[in-house]
Amino acid sequence: MWNDAEKFLRKDNHIAPLIKEWGKCTIKPIRKSIYFEDLVEAIINQQLSGKAASTIFGRVKKLLKRIEPSSIMKIKDQKLRDAGLSWQKVSYVKDLASRVEKKELKLSLLNKLDDGEVIEELTKVKGIGNWTAEMFLMFGLARPDVFPIDDLGIKKGFEKVTKREWDKVGSPKFAEKHWKPYRTIASWYLWRSLDNR
Fold first, then answer.
1. Cis peptide before 17 (omega within 30 of 0)
2. Residue 17: CB atoms within 10 Å
3. CATH class for domain 3-28+147-192?
4. Domain 32-140 architecture
């Protein structure tokens, strides 16, 4: 899927070694039918380690059988709290479900919007900020040119790979100059650079 991106990024001396080490970028668009579930998972993931988030999401899946707006709206808040969501995140997933049920947020149309419009729509939901919307653009819709500047992993990966301090080099400008129009794929490799094999 990302052949053109890899061809382009192989010319960059920061990303080329990572392509060699990690192989092909595995990001691909998800099915529309799981957009809602993906956003619920993204809300759960906020400010948690991968392991903790995965455990809580697993409990919620078990509790609801199917993660959809109607099942979120019907379940008592306390049950979601007991599954491990903070009260704040309970209110976030309920707000998301409510907006989808009222058709204020038309999830099935998100893939037809441009990146800025997707962010604008999603950030109307309580608890969904730019970072969560960007993660959905990258890992839900597989948009090729997203660079999540608020992501700690991106900052660490950038510093490790470029040997430059994030704040001193105008990192978003650097990424735009060197990796546009494939900053999503470059980001994926920056995250990989932090993985210990």
1. no
2. 14
3. mainly alpha
4. Orthogonal Bundle (1.10)
Half-sphere exposure (CA, 13 Å, Cβ side) for 63? 21
- CA dist., res. 85 & res. 97, Å (int): 15
pTM comes to 0.89
Separation CA 67–CA 38 (nearest Å) = 9
CA separation for the pair 197, 16 (Å, rounded) = 18
Query: In the chain, where are the structural domains located?
Result: 3-28+147-192, 32-140
pLDDT per position as a tens digit, 127-181: 999 999 999 999 999 999 999 998 888 999 999 999 988 877 678 899 999 999 9
7-33 per-position pLDDT tens digit:
999 999 999 999 999 999 999 999 999
Would you put residue 127 in left (φ > 0), alpha (ψ -120 to 50) or beta? left
